[in-house]
Design a protein that fits this description.
Length: 282
């Protein structure tokens, strides 16, 4: 009865049980001007799964309440088709950030999981998916970067297309980083955390912080802070939910805002991440 009740709760309420998770990360080479700089990360909207506008509006308002300097979306705005977002553009266009909103693509944004009648249909759908980001005010990074400037100092924001072990590998880290110095402080947006595991974390170019999503923590698991963190997702991804650090570099794997396939969440709740960058005095 307990598992049954948990699944019913997950379908009715769990998928809207938004959690704001806050982290303070310290870096010795963070430019002084960015000490205290805040970033809100959201991921995996999966608008094709939505049914309750009031609940989604609540989630969007909760995101805006964080009042971060920067907002970053790390992919999967739809399940398959661009028109899945038609009824939600006005909702997500309300997202606000003081110094800009940026996004990348996820594996579902390419339309690879549908049988298209004509190749041209898939191509047109992909172009419309990219246009969605403009409609909701996000600057979509396609294997490219932007410098964020503050008080004469700057950090590099790098955004790659999807790269995942066993998935689409459109991501081109070298292309996205052309024109960036090795000494620059860098934030990388890459949808699939396997990219960090296999390509990024030991890269000599030194990507200080990587932001990913993709796994959803399988929308099923048990998390008791400081004691237990488990999901079947851990058997597929070494980094599957939350913050990890290796080689003095960080990755945050956001558990996702929306849901897909299973229409609920049990124990792995939808996530809004807020990261504060701090300058180390050591």
């Amino acid at each position: 009865a307990i598992p049954f009740a948990s699944f019913i709760y997950g379908i009715i309420q769990g998928k809207y049980n938004y959690k704001v998770l806050k982290y303070q990360l310290t870096f010795k080479d963070l430019p002084d001007a960015f000490d205290g700089y805040t970033i809100t990360q959201i991921s995996d909207i999966h608008s094709g799964s939505f049914t309750n506008k009031e609940k989604i509006e609540y989630g969007v308002n909760l995101i805006n309440q964080q009042k971060s300097d920067l907002m970053l979306f790390t992919g999967d705005i739809v399940n398959n088709k661009a028109d899945e977002m038609d009824d939600w553009i006005s909702v997500f266009a309300k997202l606000e950030a003081k110094e800009g909103k940026y996004a990348i693509l996820g594996n579902h944004d390419y339309g690879d999981y549908m049988d298209w009648e004509h190749p041209e249909d898939k191509k047109n759908n992909f172009e419309k998916v990219k246009e969605i980001h403009k409609k909701i005010g996000f600057n979509l990074l396609l294997n490219e970067h932007r410098y964020l400037e503050k008080d004469g100092q700057k950090i590099a924001l790098v955004g790659v297309e999807n790269w995942g072990k066993g998935f689409n590998k459109a991501g081109d880290l070298a292309k996205a980083s052309e024109g960036i110095s090795k000494e620059d402080f860098k934030i990388l947006m890459s949808h699939d955390p396997s990219h960090w595991e296999y390509k990024v974390k030991q890269d000599d170019f030194n990507y200080h912080l990587t932001l990913s999503g993709h796994t959803h923590g399988l929308q099923l698991g048990i998390e008791i802070p400081g004691w237990l963190k488990w999901s079947p997702s851990k058997y597929a991804y070494k980094q599957w939910a939350g913050l990890y650090k290796e080689f003095d570099r960080y990755i945050n794997v956001n558990r996702g805002f929306g849901y897909h396939a299973f229409p609920g969440r049990v124990g792995i709740w939808p996530e809004i991440t807020v990261i504060e960058l701090k300058k180390s005095n050591v």
